[in-house]
Design brief:
By secondary structure, this protein is mostly beta strands. The protein contains two helices and 25 strands. The N and C termini lie far apart (60 Å).
Length: 345
């Protein structure tokens, strides 16, 4: 199969037509390279109204990295990171995905895009052996925020090892501008060793079958969004978090301690948001978009409010700089003349 490419066109029907051959070429001014970002970064909003052919280049690699300080794991990655890149396209775009599988890989890899309308989410066309490359072209028909993941057999193993990411399909009218956008993805790891056990850990199929993960993390590692990795904002910023939960088994109860979501676009739908939400449920294999304005400085903790999961790694920090907003927190004199500067929300 060396040197052969596979091309799929998902046209405006429920079925996708599969064919072998090279990718059809668009005029140079209609083809663009996708800007891909590693979590928690998000590519800039698309400043165009016309559809384009967007070229997305991904590579599956298998590499040892840190799951927790002192704990190593052999991750299966897209573009060398867990989660894989954030992809941003527009409704109506033709997305041309080039998937390479590193020659050093031991396994076949592919991608199921939840944004694809067609059999297998394109996984059949993108099935790629080590050292080879495959191509999938699909039409982005529906706006929304979607996950993508490896769907090579056995599918749960490939997902649980780190092969996943997210793709945003902006609606035709675009999204309302905000001050800061962040990409956060929750996932589980099932290690042979117990939580915190040092050294290189293999995957435990027994724990995975029982759905008992040792680690439940944001952006691929315990502590990835704390300390130097904390999300940064300023008082008054309008924040948008693209939050995905790949599982592979557990649902997430996403919450930011000390904030109320002004709007939540549930399960990735970009229409009819729910307002004034404290915690949003995100099923495995789904995503949500949350928006809120920060009015008070300080550290806000991101959690899965199935709260014991914090101990397993499901937590992060949003650090907000700037002066307090007097409209939100007003000093009040108490009997002891000590100022009260916080109210319940």
């Amino acid at each position: 199969m060396s040197g052969r490419f596979y091309l799929t066109y998902a046209v405006c029907t429920l079925a996708a037509a599969f064919a072998q051959g090279g990718a059809a070429k668009a005029p140079a001014d209609k083809t663009v390279e996708a800007t891909l970002t590693a979590a928690p970064a998000v590519p800039p909003a698309l400043q165009r109204s016309e559809p384009r052919r967007v070229v997305v280049r991904l590579e599956a690699t298998e590499k040892v990295g840190e799951l927790m300080d002192g704990v190593q794991y052999e991750f299966w990655t897209f573009n060398g990171a867990v989660p894989g890149p954030f992809i941003r396209v527009r409704q109506g775009d033709t997305v041309e995905v080039h998937l390479k599988n590193s020659a050093a890989s031991k396994n076949t890899h592919t991608i199921d895009f939840h944004a694809v309308t067609g059999s297998g989410g394109g996984a059949g066309a993108l099935t790629t052996e080590p050292g080879q490359e495959s191509i999938l072209a699909f039409k982005a028909l529906n706006p929304g925020f979607f996950v993508y993941h490896c769907a090579a057999s056995p599918v749960p193993v490939h997902i649980a090892n780190g092969l996943y990411g997210a793709i945003l399909v902006e609606p035709l009218e675009g999204l309302k501008p905000v001050d800061r956008e962040f990409y956060v993805l929750q996932s589980e790891f099932y290690t042979e060793g117990d939580l915190g056990q040092k050294g290189l850990q293999g995957q435990s199929m027994l724990k995975a079958m029982r759905e008992h993960p040792e680690y439940i993390v944001f952006n691929g590692k315990v502590g990835s969004l704390t300390g130097d990795g904390a999300l940064q904002a300023r008082v008054g910023d309008q924040i948008r978090i693209y939050f995905a939960n790949i599982g592979p088994s557990l649902s997430s109860s996403f919450h930011v301690i000390g904030e109320i979501f002004d709007r939540v676009y549930r399960e990735g739908s970009l229409t009819n948001p729910t307002e004034n939400v404290q915690t949003t449920m995100v099923p495995s294999g789904s995503a949500s978009v949350v928006e809120f304005r920060v009015s008070v400085p300080g550290d806000y903790t991101l959690v899965d409010h199935a709260i014991f999961r914090m101990i397993r790694g499901a937590m992060g920090t949003l650090h907000v700089e700037g002066p307090e907003s007097p409209e939100i927190f007003k000093s009040m004199q108490t009997g002891s003349d000590r100022p009260m500067t916080h109210e319940m929300h």
